[in-house]
Amino acid sequence: MSAFRRGSWVSLLELCWVLMGLWRLGAACPTSCSCSGTRIACVDQERGIMAFPVLQSELEMDNITDIYIANQSSFSSINDKDLHYYRNLTNLTVTNSRLTYVSRLAFQNNLKLQYLNLKDNNLSSLYWRIFRHLNISNLILSGNPLHCSCENMWMKLWLGEEADAQELKCIEEGGGRKPLTRLNPPHCGNGPKIHTHTHAHLPMILKTHTMDLIFSTNHLL
């Protein structure tokens, strides 16, 4: 067999392996989603999902850097292990869905996560410890029924003017809404002084400032 023919067979074999890999990825991808080597997108309302897709192998999930989920009426929580195998995830969007709960350990294995968009869901609060080990540079929370409570004070402290840019509001006990930047509930302590115009990384704020504020209310420990 000539070198040319051998090369052609090798190229054909490599192409078959690539196509086989794409077929396997597609076979593991839910019908309501689209999956590529680095991205998963689930936006189909009719054939919705209830949780994050689980691909066929850990290696495939390890290669995913971007997950985009929208318009999912049955998607209500992010639990401890849901994102366990997506270790290289950097961008996560869950928007216009029914998300009501995010576990404190939801992102324990996602140390590269930088962009988190949870816009237009049903979140009433979000615990600060979720983000303590992460370097989140973009956090979008607008369109959620956040409570005007001590538990959500860290959002005001970290987002600063960005909270107004997102038109972020919280709901008071009487049902009224007010800008998150005006959140100042009683019994939350004096509150740390943070210069938010530098938009420092969230872990730095949580480790150096927010502790005194959060720990002043025992029910948030």
UniProtKB/TrEMBL annotation:
Keyword Heme listed: no
Signal peptide: 1-28
Organism: Hucho hucho
Keywords: Signal
PROSITE patterns (UniProt xref): PROKAR_LIPOPROTEIN
Domain Growth factor receptor NTRK leucine rich repeat C-terminal: start-end pairs: 147-189
Entries under Pfam families matching the protein: LRR_8, LRRCT_2
Source organism, top-level taxon: Eukaryota
Name under which the protein is recorded: Growth factor receptor NTRK leucine rich repeat C-terminal domain-containing protein
InterPro entries hit by this protein: Leu-rich_rpt (IPR001611), LGI_related (IPR051295), LRR_dom_sf (IPR032675), NTRK_LRRCT (IPR031635)
